């Protein structure tokens, strides 16, 4: 089965094979694997030893995002969130339910937020301490650019939290260029092509030290994750980690490096996206985004107008042809979504487009323009 969803992604056999062992997390053979992962993802984030630290948390992306929002934004503090997609809405809900004040900067989910919009929102409210931005908006497929927004946040004397859960490892980003960034957040199971199970914040140590007492939660306190590392070592966990997912992640990082790192991964995903984007157009379908706003991670496509189209039937027909896509959409307009990330190639994408054509024919979908 070809898995074309934006996480968990298709993985390589070597990565999956690393899971097939029982491991004690505190064992002296495993501790260096874990501390090595922390160093390698810090380096991937453009972090510096002594300036930045990798703070992992068990669980999914929402967990590490909640922990980051709680840890870096003081209780009752104010955060500006560019709301241009469904993952931004999720970040806003996490912040709100953690008792932070959310200032919404609403925009369409068909283009990135602009520096002018962020600068104006920050100028209008000096009480905002942080901007929390989604890097790759997995709802629609647009990319909010930290290289454009970061300098505006910096100039306004505010702090940035970057949710790069679906971009990190493929989209360019370096903490070295972003002193305004408290933390960049990502997980094991998206562009780094590991198993799901662990989230990471690579954060500024001075900001983590200042974060003590903010979280209002022991489990979600990244300042406590940091203190624990100082006390017990960088190969040590506070609570039981998903050790097999970590063992697999170490292999996934090897494969990321062997491929040529972030630039090579971006190039492969971009080509995957291009084959898919042009392929669905050739089938008579309408991509949700204009080509100039289409990012490399996920392509969303308008559901066809034909009354014979029904998303679950389309997904089933594709699955019968060896391709699995999401059976839901996260855009306001009805769409279907296809991931371009994971251990998949442009050739796989050509196969997927052929399968889509066959599935649409089998369902008798003739009117394929947007509903
Ligand atoms: C996947 C994703 C998350 C986290 O999702 P989980 O299902 O909790 O792992 C957060 N933000 C973005 C942008 C994502 O793509």
Estimate the strand proportion: 15-25%
Which percent range fits the helix content? Answer: 25-40%
* pLDDT averaged residue by residue: 97
CA distance, first residue to last residue: 29 Å
Low-pLDDT parts are none
| CATH level-3 fold name of the largest domain | Aspartate Aminotransferase, domain 2
Total number of helices: 12
* Count of distinct strands: 11
Count of domain modules: 2
Question: How many strands, which pairing sense, and closed or not: the largest β-sheet?
Answer: 7 strands, mixed
What overall form do the CA principal axes indicate? globular
The ordered string of helix (H) and strand (E) elements is EHHEHEHEHEHEEEHHHHEHEEH
Strand order of the largest sheet: 2-8-7-6-5-3-4
CATH architecture grouping of the largest domain: 3-Layer(aba) Sandwich
Briefly note the structural class of the backbone. alpha/beta
Rg calc: 21 Å
Named once each, the bound ligands are: pyridoxal-5'-phosphate
Please write the CATH class name of the largest domain: Alpha Beta
Name given to the CATH homologous superfamily of the largest domain: Type I PLP-dependent aspartate aminotransferase-like (Major domain)
Q: Which properties best describe this structure?
A:
12 helices; two-stranded parallel sheet; about 375 residues; binds pyridoxal-5'-phosphate; Aspartate Aminotransferase, domain 2; globular; alpha/beta; seven-stranded mixed sheet; single chain
Structure description:
This protein is α/β, with parallel strands linked by helices. The protein folds into 2 domains: 12-257, 3-Layer(aba) Sandwich (Aspartate Aminotransferase, domain 2), CATH 3.40.640.10; 261-362, Alpha-Beta Complex (Aspartate Aminotransferase, domain 1). 39% of the residues lie in helices and 16% in strands. The protein has 12 helices and 11 strands. The protein has a 7-stranded mixed β-sheet, sandwiched between helices. Strand 5 (128-134), helix 6 and strand 6 (159-163) form a beta-alpha-beta unit. The protein is globular. It binds pyridoxal-5'-phosphate (PLP). Pyridoxal-5'-phosphate (PLP) binds next to helix 3.
């Amino acid at each position: 089965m070809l898995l074309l969803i934006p996480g968990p992604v298709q993985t390589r056999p070597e990565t999956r094979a690393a899971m097939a062992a029982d491991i004690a997390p505190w064992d002296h053979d495993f501790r260096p694997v874990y501390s090595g992962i922390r160093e390698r993802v810090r380096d991937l984030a453009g972090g510096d030893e002594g300036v930045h630290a990798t703070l992992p948390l068990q669980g999914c992306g929402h967990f590490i995002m909640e922990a980051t929002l709680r840890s870096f934004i003081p209780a009752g503090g104010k955060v500006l969130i560019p709301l241009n997609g469904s993952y931004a809405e999720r970040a806003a809900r996490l912040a709100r339910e953690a008792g932070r004040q959310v200032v919404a900067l609403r925009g369409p989910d068909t283009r990135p937020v602009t520096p002018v919009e962020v600068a104006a929102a920050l100028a209008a409210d000096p009480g905002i301490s942080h901007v929390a931005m989604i890097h790759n908006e997995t709802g629609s497929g647009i990319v909010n650019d930290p290289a454009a927004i970061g300098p505006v946040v910096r100039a306004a004397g505010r702090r940035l939290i970057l949710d790069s859960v679906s971009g990190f490892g493929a989209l360019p980003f370096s903490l070295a260029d972003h002193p305004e960034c408290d933390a960049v957040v990502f997980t094991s199971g998206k562009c780094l092509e590991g198993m799901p199970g662990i989230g990471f914040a690579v954060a500024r140590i001075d900001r983590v030290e200042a974060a003590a007492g903010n979280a209002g939660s022991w489990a979600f306190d990244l300042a406590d994750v940091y203190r624990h590392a100082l006390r017990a070592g960088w190969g040590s966990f506070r609570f039981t980690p998903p050790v097999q997912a970590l063992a697999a992640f170490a292999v996934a990082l090897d494969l990321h490096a062997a491929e040529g790192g972030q630039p090579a991964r971006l190039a492969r995903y971009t080509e995957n996206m291009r084959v898919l984007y042009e392929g669905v157009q050739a089938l008579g379908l309408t991509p949700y985004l204009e080509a100039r706003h289409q990012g490399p991670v996920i392509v969303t496509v308008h559901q066809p107008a034909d009354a014979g189209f029904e998303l679950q039937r389309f997904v089933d027909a594709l699955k019968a042809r060896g391709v699995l896509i999401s059976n839901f959409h996260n855009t306001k307009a009805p769409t279907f979504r296809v991931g371009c990330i994971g251990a998949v190639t442009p050739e796989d994408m050509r196969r997927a487009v052929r399968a889509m054509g066959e599935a649409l024919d089998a369902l008798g979908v003739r009117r394929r323009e947007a509903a």
